[in-house]
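Two proteins were folded this term; both appear here.
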Amino acid sequence: MRPEELPEMFKDLQSYPPEPGTDITLSVDLNLQQVALAALSRHRSGAVVVMDVHTGEVLVMASHPSLPVGPRLHAVTGSAARDIEVAYAPMVNKAVSAYPPGSTFKPMTVVGGFVENIFDYDTVVNCPGHFDYRGRRFHCYKRTGHGDMSLIPSLAQSCDTYYYQLGEIMGIDLIAHYAKDWFGIGEKTGVEIYEQSGVMPTESWYREKGVSFQPGFAINSSVGQGDVRATPLGMARAYAALVNGGLVLKPKLVRWKGPHDLAYDKVQPEIIRRLDVPEQLVQAMMAGMYDAVNNEQGTAFKSAIPDLPYAGKTGTAQARERRPDVSNDVAAWLLQDHAWFVAYAPAKRPQVVVSVFVEHGGFGGAEAAPVAKKVIEAYYAEHSDEFADLWEGFKEQDALEVIWP
């Protein structure tokens, strides 16, 4: 084609010399990232997020498995390819994908219930192993029951019945208000890469979906089940807000940025909103999550680190999928629960939150907590001198003596 035959829109095009772009330095800690990936490697699929609770910097964003390099992927076809797509999903970043969070959601329900004065520190719920509501039985994971439960042991032992009763009184819209409007569950975090928002259902959400709303939906939502969906990154941000004085931060993967060969500017923390969670409530919740790890009745006790106290909340989310087009092995895997554990360390003055998700991994305390333990051990090894005074001499009662940084 001759120049005079070019379309009119191309005739005014000009060429411009290339210009150097903006250089960036990521916040990701390579050593911690490698430790997280190694810890996840014994599982089929999962993710780990580590976030600085004071700055929002993402120190680890690990998704397992990752896409293999080379021609091997293209050589897989047929049913084997379908198994890989379903069971491994190597092209999906699971750290920013949404899944039912299970019992890691319970702290959001607690905040709403206590701020609204529905439950208080003296409220005791008897757990016989189930909660009956309008002809339907909602089982606690401990079918024999926990007996009398108040706030702190309900978190440590993850008693579902305590939250069923609280959720039934709150209703789904009030649960959603605190989970989403306060802690950001069901909304995007604003991190610099693509992410899913998750879901925090309300009565109107069900109407828009054409689903007949049932009051029992609130009971499922209270324990992070039903249609609740959250990302590992979103859960990390929510827990950071619990332990950093109520700051909901925008997670950041970029620490420094600036023009090529010029001085860099450090990316400053960005506060999305400030939460007014009563300090006494935070102290009690932190005591419950401390006991979850460091008390022999806690759901993550087997992942405790002697003389290295940290705290967290386990989650085991029902997420059964039935796929007739996969192998028997993958079909059985799809029937298992998701395993979660969201932890913070050190227990006394938290610096980081560690969010672990193991897809169809089973029990959170058995499968996700050991992953977090390895990451926290590595984090402590990197910062042992800096944080020595925060780890040594920590006693159980110190969990009730929170000192804000």
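Next, the second protein.
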Amino acid sequence: MDFKHSLPSQATRPPGPDYNSLQLKLNIIHGNLSLQTILLIGACLQTLLFLLPIPKLYSVGPAIALLLFRIIETTLITYNLIPNPYLEDAILRKTAAQPHDSEGKFSGPGKEKIAILLLGAKSNHPLGIFEPQFGKVGNFLRIMTEELNGDPTQDSGFLGQSAVTRKDKNGATEQVTISYWRSIEDVHRFAYSPNHLSAWRWWNDNVKQLDHIGIMHEVYEADAGMWESVYVNFQPTFLGSTTYLKKDGKLVGGEVKEEWVRPLLDANRGKLRTSNGRRGLMDKKENINKVYGGDAESYETV
């Protein structure tokens, strides 16, 4: 059975999260502010406009114009009159992430084991992310991420990562990165690398002054066939955003060019359409009949 990649390979490794990007910084600042704070900032700015020696119409004009712009833009997107920016880079079909082997080859559904590291930090401080010590935590994370994404050989076992941000019940912002590795041994080996040891020592040396900063991690390893994934109308994310160095790339101009591949495969039909299939297992025919009816004959069943 042929499996079709949903994204083309690339000559260089696709970049990971860019912690220096303006958009990411704005998102982090926005997540750090409560709705009440944002409304108060807006109210203060509006008040300052009223105090200026200008016609009152000009004072309320910017807010009204921005609101009208948002309403018009939303309407145009809703009726498909302009492109939907939220669909940028989305793959508008069903795909499944299937990690490749150490040579960058796909050997079959569910054939590879996978390790997952959840690494989180939160600032339990009124200043949130602007508390100086928390900024140091973020800088350590940025340095480690740049090191892992910059590995030209992928010998570290690091496959990629995604990040999520949420607020806890007290309003504190939590930032969590979910990274994927070939094995727990690879995760532990990185824990004793120079950059992580530097962060570790800094924490141990200052822990008595860091009660307001929370850090956590969880590590899991799933054996081959004990995991699966599916994405419908999604941008590449989590396991689907990992990358694999294909080590038997094409010979061009007397040298082998690098080739980085994504693990997302077409899952609209065939074995990858079902959960068991994505794990490399056979489906029961009665279960396939219940879900796919007349299409059931096109599936391998037991």
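Residues 89 and 235 are 6 Å apart (CA to CA). The chain has three domains: 1-20+92-265, 33-86, 269-302. These notes refer to the second protein only.
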